[in-house]
Amino acid sequence: MPASQNPYTQIARHTQEATLAIVRAWTRFLHETVTRVPVLATQAAAKAAAQQIIDQASGFATTMIDVQHTLSKQIVTSSANVAEGFVQQATSAMTQAGAQAIDTAAKAGRTRKTKP
User: Fold this and answer.
1) Where are the domains of the chain?
2) Which of 15, 49, 75, 113 reaches 20 to 30 Å from 68, CA-CA?
3) What are the CA-CA distances from residue 104 to residues 28, 58, 89, 108 (Å)?
4) Assign residue 40 a region: left if phi > 0, alpha if psi is -120 to 50, beta otherwise?
5) pTM of the predicted model as reported, rounded to 2 decimal places
6) How high is the pLDDT of residue 80?
7) pLDDT tens profile 14-24
């Protein structure tokens, strides 16, 4: 090997060794850190937490639909009751108005008969 390439070879070797030392240190750091920090205890705990969130969201949605269902039924029932009451009042008013019209017509007919 020529002497001129020797310094470049040494620089390359030192660079490789430094890079390898950095990678080893980084790997050691990551290994120590990961083993110390619980990753949501375990994968099973993470899965259970996700399922709990889904259950809560679904439970909330189900409750909202149930409330909406009950409210809709109450609105229909109340509206039907109001409509029924309105029909009864209207029928009663028409009956009374008809009776009064008949009475008025009868009185008018009697009045005409009595007058020559």
Assistant:
1) 58-116
2) 49
3) 109, 68, 22, 6
4) left
5) 0.41
6) 82
7) 888 888 888 78
